[in-house]
Design a protein that fits this description.
This protein has a single domain (about 1-130), classed as Nucleoside Triphosphate Pyrophosphohydrolase. The chain contains three helices and eleven strands, in the order E-E-E-E-E-H-E-E-E-H-E-E-E-H. It is an alpha+beta fold and about 180 residues long.
Amino acid sequence: MLENLLNYKKIDDSLKSKKNNYASVAVLFIDNNEILFIKRSENMPTHKGHIAFPGGKKEKTDKSVVSTAIREASEELLIPENSISPFGYIDSVDTVEYKFEVFPILCFLKRKPEKFNKDEVQKVLYAKIDNLMNETNWHYRGFYSNDWIFEIDNEILWGATAKMVRKILNLTLDSNPDYEPHP
């Protein structure tokens, strides 16, 4: 079963206690063999054109980091919230551009979306879990110490989203010990 391969924590009450500003993303698993990514619109206030998971900032009506992730995925992918089944999470991560904690929520998605919100998403991409788990498919780009990238349909998965994927899939690609910052 897919869950046995992944590094995650089961959803618990600790996720409900987050009351500060935060963002959540939905890591959507389809048919136990693919993960859904989006290419963010150039109209978005942050992370323009980046490959990411569907997600965004907490709104007043959100009850938890889980409800934020589900609402955001539903809005961006134009799918019903009940087609998303959360099952776990990993610890929050920080991004360079976005100063809030970002909570990755692992979810099953019943079927691939047929359309998406073009105001927020340029396109939807899928990566096979087997390909993501193959460490030889990842390449060290070297702009910073943990700059591992993965290509999906001629797009580059990098940064915080790539770091989340590596953590969820238990990949050992961490920092490059030979990295020296560019002057």
